[in-house]
Amino acid sequence: RVAGGGAQSDLLTQLLAHAAGLRTVRPRCTEASLLGAAGVAFTALGYATDLNALMQTLNPPQTLCTPDAAATAGYRAQATVIDGLLRALTEAQQARSENADDELA
């Protein structure tokens, strides 16, 4: 399930499905905080006994995005490259910090 402002975008919801390799489901209303609070209150007051069932009734799925295997593989390959770059940057920053510490000593 996706929620929040970004969930209103068909493109972003589909990209998330591709990148994660998982189906994304957008409910009719993406205001998760508001509906979650209302659902908890309804359940606490005894108007509902099953919060999950209540949420399915109040806010049923509207849009389902399925991932494309080729797109998912592409995103995973990019993630591997980005992870390597991030490691190299972290190591360079640590080395720079150690050199600065040595110069101060």
Automatic annotation (TrEMBL):
Pfam families: FGGY_C. One of its GO terms (molecular function) is kinase activity. Residues 2-44 form the Carbohydrate kinase FGGY C-terminal domain. GO terms for biological process: carbohydrate metabolic process. This is Carbohydrate kinase FGGY C-terminal domain-containing protein. Gene3D superfamilies: 3.30.420.40. It comes from the Bacteria.
